[in-house]
Amino acid sequence: MSSQAFQIISTLRYDPALPNVVAQRGVDAYPDPLNTPYYLLPYHQDRLRNAARYFNWDSAVKFLEQDLAQFAQHLDKYIPDKGQPWRLRVVVDRNGECKVDVDIADRIELENFVVPFIISPISTSWRVYIDTAPTVPSAYTTHKTSARGDYMDARTRLGISSPLDTADVLLVNPKGEVMEGSITTPYFRRRRESNAEQNEPEWITPPLSSGGCAGTSRRYALAQGFCREQIITTADLIDGEMCLLSNSVRGFILGRVVLNKRPN
Questions:
Q1: Residue 142 lies in a domain
Q2: Do residue 50 and residue 149 come from a single domain?
Q3: What are phi and psi of 10, to 5 degrees?
Q4: Which long-range contacts does 147-152 make (Cβ < 8 Å, 24+ apart)?
Q5: Number of folded domains in the chain?
Q6: What is the pLDDT of residues 177-205, one digit of tens each?
Q7: Residue 16: CA atoms inside 13 Å, Cβ hemisphere, count?
Q8: Is 201 found in the same domain as 151?
Q9: C-alpha to C-alpha distance for 43 and 41, rounded to whole angstroms
Q10: Are the C-beta atoms of residues 173 and 211 closer than 8 Å to each other?
């Protein structure tokens, strides 16, 4: 394990409209017993706790083992205005210190956050590129940390210069397997390999064995039976095919694969 200084992180949306959307949609399996404005809050706490355990950060584990209500109260201290949506970046160091970076988030419809989600047919699809160099899976791709060099390098290679760009790049391991997006989890529509002629297409997402991170929206989609895991290689991708992307700030959004992108 590298001796570089890093923190474990998780990024999510705070939105005061989220509890009402969950209630109106009647989604009993939405994973937040407190029905907080924090999107998928229990999953974020779990992800941080799992990373702290992996890195043997005992003080961080102790902090993250507090109950969900206490964790939410800690985050509440960083919300400048509880009537507005915010993008939160939760940062925990090896000493168990937890800080939260907060930025204003766009007001958007939340129907695409709750499985089964609704995506407007007039939505603008994101461009989805494939990295031009392989990424070797490591603890820094398995767990979300501030050591984001692999992800930033992939974005730079494909000319994605701003977090506001409606584009993402798929990281690929040395076997040619798609790992994940630089800021999203991808989903592709495929038939099962066995009896393909008899099966309807279904959504698949890369397995963790390919080297990507256990994203929170990914976990939610799998738990709700929206998708299943399946290895997908760059050779399986089709130029122009529609896909889905997800993260805990934007929800589930449309994507379109672009194979002929030339790096800057």
A1: yes
A2: no
A3: -150, 140
A4: 147/2, 147/4, 147/6, 151/182, 151/183, 152/182
A5: 2
A6: 999 999 999 999 998 766 555 678 999 99
A7: 9
A8: yes
A9: 5
A10: yes
Say if residue 150 is in the same domain as residue 44: no
Position 33 pLDDT exceeds 80: yes
What is the CATH classification number for the domain harbouring 38? 3.30.470
Burial code (b: 16+ CB inside 10 Å, e: under 16) for 204-229 equals: bbbebebbbbbbbbbbbbbebebbee
Neighbouring CB atoms inside 10 A of 263's CB total 12
Q: 107-134 pLDDT, tens per residue? A: 998 999 999 999 887 788 999 999 999 9
- H helices within the chain, ranges in order? 18-25, 41-54, 58-64, 68-76, 139-142, 149-157, 216-223
Contacts 24+ apart (CB under 8 A), 78-83: 78/102, 79/14, 82/16, 82/37, 83/16
Angle at 205 between CA 195 and CA 248, to 5 degrees: 150
d(CA 257, CA 128): 5
What b-and-e string marks burial along 238-251, b requiring 16 or more CB atoms within 10 Å of the CB? eeeeebbbbbbbbb
Domain end residue (candidates: 75, 110, 145) = 110
Both 162 and 246 in one domain: the answer is yes
The total number of residues written for the chain in this structure: 264
> pTM of the full predicted structure?
0.94
Backbone angles phi, psi at 216, to 5 degrees: -75, -45
> Same domain, yes or no, for 137 and 215?
yes
Residue 199 sits in a domain of what CATH number? 3.20.10.10
Give the amino acid at 109.
E
DSSP secondary structure code for residue 236 in this structure: G
117 within some domain: no
- Which residue range(s) make up the domain with 185? 126-258
Same domain, 251 and 140: yes
* Degrees, nearest 5: CA angle 207-118-214: 20
- Decide if 118 is inside a domain: no
